Amino acid sequence: MDNLVLDQGRIAEASKSDCEKCFGFCCAALYFTATEGFPINKEAGVPCPHLAEQFKCNIHPQLQQKGLKGCKAYDCFGAGQRVAQHTYEAKDWREHPKLKKPMFDSFLTVHKLHEMLWYLNCAVTANQDEKLAKALKQMLLQVDAFASSDPEQLKCISIEELRLEVNQLLAANSEQVRATFQKQSGNYGKLKKPASGRKDFFGADLRKMDMRGADLRGAMLIAANLSQLDLSGVDFIAADLRDTNLCGADLSLSINLTQIQISGAKGNDATKLPTNLIRPSHW
């Protein structure tokens, strides 16, 4: 059990992005569009024109001013530095052009694995059920081992099958954690799912709701108002928090939050965050 705990701490650090140790993968390997808050419409595998020689962004200081929220909020969960420094042993794709495509492909796979690591690590921290906690830790170590694979091994990983297993564990954890807070909650059950199954609260004012333990997985919360709310036990996995008002909200015990979500939302000094997230500089 002690080894699992030590691995959890290491994995937590490995899941934090370190752009200084990356080769600009997010600016080159991925596709993005101007409508999503990026500079231009760009194809995958084509470097952004603002990517400088040392893999720095030429317009990084102006991202907020230019309204490039996609660039500002993006986070690779630490996949960039893992591929750059470990998978390819610090050989960059500009000096070794033959490595460009396989390196980009590896990044796309490791990014998905590191996203799973992030959620699994959060689940292990939040879970208090011994049996489920053991299963989560075992999966955490399994996914971490996959992420440590060499480029050829990475090609053989069935991401969809693995994601299905991970999602089942995350769903079970969510049910347990939310149940604890639902006992304290009043009327969050009145929140309605649309026919599509996705909760649509675009621009909604939810300040009068008792949201503790609420299931907001996959919810559309763009420009919604959750300010001053106690959001303990709320599951935000895959929720769209762009421009969501979180000023003064308490998210310290919320689950399945990512840096991308927080960076795209609106908050202030009074917003309480989980210890694994960083308060955005623009708040």
Question: What does this entry show, briefly?
Answer:
The protein has helices at 2-14, 25-28, 69-73, 79-87, 100-126, 130-147, 151-155, 159-182, 259-264. By secondary structure, the protein is mainly alpha-helical. The longest helix has 27 residues, at 100-126.
Tell me what you see in this structure.
There is one protein chain. 39% of the residues lie in helices and 0% in strands. The protein has 283 residues and is mainly α.
Task: Give descriptors for this structure.
mainly alpha, globular, 283 residues, single chain
**Spans of at least 5 consecutive residues with low confidence:** none
Mean pLDDT: 91
Number of extended strands: 0
Main pleated sheet = none
Strand content: under 5%
User: What is the CA–CA distance across the termini?
Assistant: 39 Å
SSE string: HHHHHHHHH
Helix content: 25-40%
Number of helices: 9
Task: Please give the structural blueprint.
Elements: H1 2-14, H2 25-28, H3 69-73, H4 79-87, H5 100-126, H6 130-147, H7 151-155, H8 159-182, H9 259-264
Helix pairs in contact: 1-6, 4-5, 5-6, 5-8, 6-8
